[in-house]
Amino acid sequence: MELDQEELHPEKKRESISFDAGINLKMLVSYFIIHWYWFLIALVFSFMVAYIYLRYQVPIYSASTSVLILGDKKGNVLSELDAFSDVELLSKPSSMDNEIEIFKSRSLMTKVVNDLNLQITYTAKGKIIHNEIYKKSPIRVFLLNNEKKDVVQGTLQIAVINEKEFSLISKINPKPVRHHFGDTILTPIGHAVVSLFSTNVRNFKGQTIQVVKSTLRSAVQRYQNALTVKPVNKTASILVLSVSDPSREKAEDIIDNLVYQHNQDAKEARNQISKNTADIISERLNFITGELTSVESSEQSFKQSQGLVDIQGQAKMALESDRTTKQRIYELSTQMKAADYIFNFIQRSSNTDAIPTNLGINEGTTSGMINSYNQIVIERNRQLQNATEINPVIESLDLQLENLKQSIIGSLSTYRTTLQIQMSSLSSQAGTYSSKIYQAPSFERQFKSIDRQQQIKEALYLYLLQKREETNIAMAVAVDNTKTIDEAMSSGSPVSPDKKGIYTMALAFGLLIPSFLLYLKNMLDTKVHSYKDLEKLNIPFIGDIPFTQHDNHLVVSKGVSTDIAESFRMVRTNMDFILSNAPTNTGKLIVITSTLSSEGKSFISLNLASTIALTGKKVILVGLDLRAPKLLQYLGLEDHIGITNYISNPQLDLRDIIIRTPLKENIDILSSGDIPPNPSELLLHERVQTLFNSLKEKYDYVIVDTAPVGMVTDTLLINKYVDASIYVVRANYLDRRMIGIPYALHAEKRLNNMSFLLNGSDIRKGYGYGYGYGYGYGGYGYGYGYGHSYGSYGKKEKPKRGIFSWFKKKK
Question: Does the structure show a pLDDT above 80 at 307?
Fold first, then answer.
């Protein structure tokens, strides 16, 4: 029988949905106003937690600097290298991505940690938090076991007694032990010497200084995590480096030292190749100098013995062509020697030696592989600073070097074969030219041979001198890869914890958590609580009865002016409007029903009859709940014959079953009688009509307490005799999903002149309509019709509440 309002009236679906949303919004606002103290408690608790959290947090400061990457293609800044841009050995432009990774590298941070001795931290113990005293510490701890200092860790508690003595607490000696500054002592971190770093120890007398020694690995990892490197933007060649640390001075020192170590590494990497190349060139110059001296001596002796001054004659053109061919042969011979030298150098070199790259090899593939080989050698040597030969990274680099070495050897072999073919071809041409000058004097040929040898050696000598000078220039102008724009500086205010953000979060939690809980409670609560849950049905509302805890079921009497009595009087007044169109020549028959049992039908019937009787009207209260009668029980009367007996026994007269009660004037009682096995069939008997007609002629009002319509059909069987139907809905009891039953009954007009009455409403929540007594009911009466209201009283008066009133027991 449960029907949905939208199914009965589809055209009202959109209107109903928007109206429900409005109700939910109002309900949330109402919850906020009603439960303001819970929001206050949540806010106070959130701010207390935030304050305690901030109180125990060590402030973290951030220092940052800006550096310009010199030589990056994005930058247009001139440097010292621009004057030597044609020198091949000078470093290529730096890449921003490469520089970022180098700054973040473990090897670079390891050098910073070792240089600044960051493995050991000094902290002044406070009552709540411990503050690091980086450069302000009056003491310094020096470890003597240099071999293990990078792997040991531990904590020492040192208290300065005076300028000569201090006390030490450690795992070895849990109790304070006095020592002198400068003594060698055994500690959990090895043998150490504690020295007085500053003579101004007054501020630290009696205060414990905590000395924490970390392993090198953990210290480097900690500061790597605290480091941030990022470009200013996508177009600039500027990097911003920042470090977060509890000590502002330490953060600034780490940044400055990191930039310094980066520049030193870049210089060393560039100078390594230049130095190896310079050594090879010097060796070759000494060899070529000896050969050139020998050739020049031979030329001098030949000229002196033959008396030669100049070359003339018919063989001039042949000689010129021959010379050109031989010159080319000599050039190829020079390249062949350079290739032979590099081939022999590779055969005897190890993975730590870079291959000379400036010896005149004109084969592009070979030169590229040699450059790649040298880059890997540099990377391997850099990794060896922090690793051993068996490190997986070193082994991988060795494998790459071996593969490249084999590739270079193969490429050189191919290159030499090509040179030999070219030289063979040129030699054949030279033979042709030689035959043309065969007739020339033998001393002329001998002189030309000596002269050619001299030119070859001289050209090679000048070439090596030029390369040596270029190498020396590259080593002399080895400038930094970066230029510091701003020195490292801290803002002075901590970046963590974020007080503003934490307090904002506390405010959000203080508001959202109770809101969420109240909203969740409202979503999970499916009970009817107030008139707001009923008004969307557009069924007249006759009033509401506030919840009360009385032992007596009869709460309305003459002279009684309680809240609940006044609410029944309001229902009586509103009922007059509903019955305004009823016949006036007979009494009014009013049925009281509900959806389920235990919603207060008998209670409402009894007190409504009492309220009407106070006006002097004759009222009879009929108990027609034939299945679970409670009327006599509420009045404290014994069982009596009633309606079922009257219907089943034609011999009984109406006067025999009416009870004259002394409890109330103008009220008679008609009980249900014995419980029958077939109540529904019994109510279809013709004597039921006779009964109601007789009662309406004799009494002004007939109040009928019937069975719940959501469970049985008894009430619907007598609807044809009814002038008005009061549908009782018990607050905080009936499920909202069941209000489709009264809606369907009203829409189908199966209950005459139907109106709602809310029973057990909570006057503390201000539901309903104000009457001036601080509880909500009856401010709006309803006439006969749907949704038309007639104001009976004035403005709503909001009930006054204190923060602790919720804990008080309702009376």
Answer: no
